[in-house]
What does this fold into?
Amino acid sequence: MRLRRRGVALVAALAIGAAGAASGAACVPSVRGYALYHGYLQLQASVAATEVPLPTSASRCVNCHDAQPSGAPRRVVPLDRTSLVQPVARRGGPPSTYDAASFCAAAREGLDPSFVILDRTMPRFAISDDDCRALWRYVSAR
Amino acid sequence: MSVRRAAIAGALVGCGLAAAGLGAGFLLSAGRAAPPTLPPVAAPPPESHLPFGPIRPPRALPSVVLRVDDGAATTLAALTQGRYTLAQLMFTGCSVTCPIQGAIFKATQAELTAEGAEAQLLSISVDVVGDAPDALARWLRGFEARTGWRAAVPSPEGLGPLIDALNGRGSGPDVHDARVYLIAPSGKLIFVTEDMPSPRYLAKLVRDAAAFEARRPG
It folds into this structure.
């Protein structure tokens, strides 16, 4: 009986420890950013200019920004240090760079740093400041 | 083992599992099937002033054999005869625009019901090699598609003529476009929307088309 109780306590401790470790890891910004980017953590998003809610499986960044090259005429720009932090002319506008604030504005409102509207393929995210900062921290360091 | 040691062991196991899960997810997501290759343009689509809007005169669509999500074989004409059809191009292995297009159709199905507008939804796969009926059925289930929303894949020889008639090759990040095509009960194409149209707009489009047809003399 004592052995059985110890076994139950052991399994419970293992489970709680594992859950705690996973939750703790998700709080680390770089890990959280990775998880948000790949859709392991939920993001609230909708189709641009509509009220159509998008499940995370449809709106996660990795879907488009890490898509394999295809026969399509245009490729969605990968999100990394080169594309975000280096000055780049985007959508016919002047060269611009992203910072955390403009990145979050793009995610929420669909405007790039030169205030050009992003393509409607890009979802519009209802993202918290903490999540956006974590996401920015992850993509700007890639 | 003491409870404290078990908790520490659990934390280490948790980190290991989390890392393994993230790694597996990364590998799985990196290993997606290659997108389909569309056949070359055989018949250039008719010139149009705008990439969206009414199609005047209504455009006959090719008689394409389709395999539907339940495995049945039919034709586009038979599937669209007698009712309004909102059609979109997709493929089940697509991760860029198609998940969004599916979400739009899911919301459109609800909007059509709410507005009392009658139309069927048809998702047409451009992946004639990779998309079998069971894959189409799975894709529909993923969007909780109800009766009235079908998916189909054309025969390999039918894909090119259909894409050309719809002018459906993508100009963006996908091999197909994200527009919605309104097919009249006659089976002819009468309207093409812009990419990613709103469900409310699609329901209004169907209502307006039906009202216009009802007012036509003869």
